[in-house]
Design a protein that fits this description.
The protein has 350 residues and is of the alpha/beta class. The chain has 13 helices and 8 strands. 51% of the residues lie in helices and 10% in strands. The structure holds phosphoenolpyruvate (PEP) and manganese (II) ion.
Length: 350
């Protein structure tokens, strides 16, 4: 069990993808401080998927972040990927570190960062690994906690996929939900910028994340995104950022009146869920009986025509009732897979 302590000032973190020059960093920081941002992000060392792109201004940029902190009072945060980065960032008095998505995929790199952090008490944000592998994400927290880092939080920035998609990185909202279950009390901050990959989709994802109970947002903002040296398409201008935050709905905890309103609906849902479980149990009982018959009479368990007929009929019915087609297809796929498993089990016990 990982012991986590809360990190302050992480409900709204914003700043450019990369620290490009002192002027760019300060211009951006001044407008964000005015907008109420409490922590300023900027990448000093940029891990690039392909060589030949801008790889960050390196150590000199730490001085610019020191100036941001001194001038605006915002906390400053940057990405570290090895022991040398950690040492330089600590020496510069950076307040919060983050581990990037490409680094989280590498246990050796995470261990190196964790070892370099031993004996310090700086907060660390860990981005999800670029591939949808929850265990790697959890492994990074375990390595850091093992080195004595207590203030840890997660950044959910989406997962890579080979296929065409609307978002640059797919959110897979179920993964941070499972992370919260596995590491109780962990703060999950959403990075809608890398997830969207397009500035116009950032506000939508930011609101979705808040609706999913994100504890904070991590947003890329550049004074002039069209001139940015990295991640041009997804960075907001300071004005766009202010427009977004003025419209975002930050949620409150439900109070007594809210609970009173929801109570009858909740008990109705509880009854429906119980009925669903009962119906599923009845369904698998019937499945079992057909399974026995198929065994006795040498019939194959899988009957593809029957499967297709039921799946089509249910999807049609679902559509009529206003249910999502994809949802019905997936639900039935899961139920059918379980029926097959039950029938195979029966066969093994005969
Ligand atoms: C970044 O935050 O600029 C960055 C490099 O992010 P990620 O590691 O999520 O790609
Ligand atoms: Mn970026």
């Amino acid at each position: 069990m990982i012991e986590i302590e809360k990190i302050e000032n992480c409900s709204l973190i914003a700043g450019p993808c990369s620290a490009e020059s002192e002027t760019q960093v300060l211009e951006c920081a001044r407008s964000l401080a005015k907008a109420g941002v409490k922590a300023f992000r900027a990448g000093v060392w940029k891990p690039r998927t392909r060589p030949g792109n801008f790889e960050g201004a390196g150590e000199p940029a730490l001085e610019w972040l020191k100036t941001v902190k001194a001038e605006t009072g915002m906390a400053v945060t940057t990405e570290v990927a090895n022991a040398r980065h950690v040492e330089a960032a600590l020496k510069a008095g950076i307040d919060i570190l983050w581990i990037g998505a490409r680094t989280t995929t590498s246990p050796f790199a995470v261990q190196e960062v964790a070892d370099a952090l031993r004996g310090t008490d700086i907060p660390v944000l860990v981005k999800n690994p670029i591939n949808a592998e929850l265990e790697l994400w959890i492994g990074a927290f375990e390595r850091l906690a093992g080195a004595g880092v207590k203030r840890l939080a997660a950044i959910h920035r989406g997962f890579s996929s080979y296929y065409e998609r609307i978002y640059r990185y797919s959110p897979e909202w179920q993964i941070p939900i499972e992370l919260r279950r596995r590491i109780p009390g962990i703060q999950v901050i959403c990075d809608p910028s890398h997830m969207a990959g397009r500035s116009d989709l950032v506000p939508l994802l930011a609101q979705m994340a808040l609706d999913m109970k994100a504890d904070g947002l991590f947003v890329e903002v550049h004074p002039d995104p069209s001139q940015a040296l990295s991640d041009q398409k997804q960075q907001l201008t300071p004005q766009e950022f202010c427009n977004m935050t003025s419209k975002l709905v930050f949620h409150r905890e439900p109070g007594a009146a809210d609970r009173k309103f929801m109570q009858p609906y909740r008990s109705q849902l509880d009854d429906i869920d119980l009925q669903l479980i009962q119906d599923l149990a009845d369904r698998f009982n019937v499945t079992g009986r057909i399974g026995e018959y198929k065994n006795l009479h040498n019939l194959a368990i899988l009957q593809p025509e029957r499967y297709k007929a039921i799946s089509d009929a249910l999807t049609e019915k679902g559509k009529e009732l206003g249910l999502d087609e994809e949802f019905i297809r997936l639900l039935f796929e899961t139920i059918h897979a379980e029926s097959i498993r039950c029938q195979i089990n029966k066969k093994n016990t005969i």
